[in-house]
Amino acid sequence: MRAKFSRQISLSKTLFFLCFFISASLVISPILYAQTIAAKEVLTLKKAIEISLQNQPAIIVQASQVQAGEAKIGQSKSGYFPQINISTGYTRISPVKPDTSANTSQAGMPPGTSIPSGIAGRGNEAFDQYAASAYMNQLLFDFGKTGAQVNVQKLNTEAARFALENTKDQVIFNVKQAYYSLLGAEHALGVAIESVDNFRNHLAIAINYYRAGMKPKFDVTKAEVDLSNAELNLIKAENFVSASRINLNNAMGLFQIDVPSYTIEDDVSFASFELTKKEAIDIVYEKRSDLRALQKQKESAMESVKLYQRGYFPTLSGVASYTYVGPEFPLDSGWYAGAYLVYPLFSGFLTKNQVAEAKANLEALNANERGLKLTILLDLEQAFNALKEAAESRRKTELSVRLARENRELAAERYRSGTGTPAELSDALVDYANARLANIAGLYDYKIAQARIERAIGKRE
């Protein structure tokens, strides 16, 4: 009794802890998922990419397609194995009376109808019927139909794997683009803040000069208008930073409400992209995962044509069955075994149209492959043009920033000395801010163009 009681306690403990861990996993998992980024963390581009590869729904969907493809391979392979079924049944039978008089119509049977003697011997007495059987069917030969079906599913699964890699490449590019856009927005916000400070200082100087009788009221009014415009630009810059941050969170596959406050690692480095256009074109067709996925789909379509063409050929199968049946136990038994050949003489032109459909799908995939190659080359061309434009903009705006800074200092000094006008100083401040914004845009446009080229050639790092 004690041993039995101890076993019951042990079982109860096991069930308790099992339920506890299952409940804990259900409760804790969402929390861990939401805390991918720690509060006040400095987020690097590498970490952002890692987060996106774990959380982006598009990747999870495509990975599920790969799993589904692997399951379909197993389904198609089932044709190699025997199909075994067992069945059992019970029937309650109440036979009608034999046709011995004119009352047969009342018995529910047409005149002249009789029932088997084995059952008729029971008269009108109801009886039980029991049955149990095992049935096996084994495909012996089908002219390669099953093998072709397996190959089709294997090629489709390989295509799904390449599609998964293509989805990852696109997600990585989206993260890079959003990351650099946020960096550019934050630097632009810094320019807007500095611009507000400059115009606020200019307003203070104009007020002091006006009170001292050295400048007219117009200078104060002009400075107030300039400050108001700068503050409006600051609001726009703040909103753009907020929108860029939301865009980055979305690219990482994170809900905005679940993401704590974080900062991103500043990156103002400028490194020239060494790969030439010719080198990129030479490797692009080997690296693009979406192109390789399409090529696997083409191979699958070609295999599908062969599969449906084999629909014209017969199939050879072996069968065996063992059965128990009777009104009472022990039941009578019997068995049979044999083979049968099924030759499709006419299927309503089903096979013919299946072959035609497969050939049409193959033709469409050939056209899609050509179209994708054209798109890849176009993307590559546009990306190199954008890279060249951004590099040139970066080079020229560096000089513009230096000259605009000098002009701003000269205009401020001329205004203080009384020889300059408020319009001259205002223009100098605006020109300096615009030059810095253009320089920032050139830097991060270059980085985004580089990421676009890497996406075009299937390079992730």
SSE layout:
Layout: H1 2-34, E1 42-43, H2 45-55, H3 57-77, E2 83-93, H4 117-120, E3 127-141, H5 145-211, H6 217-251, E4 263-264, H7 277-287, H8 289-309, E5 315-326, E6 332-342, H9 350-417, H10 422-456
Parallel strand pairs: 1-4
Antiparallel strand pairs: 2-3, 3-5, 5-6
Helix pairs in contact: 2-5, 3-5, 5-6, 5-8, 5-10, 7-9, 8-9, 9-10
Q: What keyword list fits this structure?
A:
4-stranded antiparallel β-sheet, single chain, 461 residues, 10 helices, 11% strand, Outer membrane efflux proteins (OEP), disordered N terminus, alpha+beta, two-stranded parallel sheet
Please, what is the CATH homologous superfamily of one domain?
Outer membrane efflux proteins (OEP)
Q: What would you call the structural class? A: alpha+beta
Q: What's the rounded overall pLDDT mean?
A: 84
Query: Terminal Cα separation, in Å?
Result: 67 Å
User: pLDDT under 50 segments (min length 5)?
Assistant: 1-35, 101-120
Query: What is the CATH C-level name of one domain?
Result: Mainly Alpha
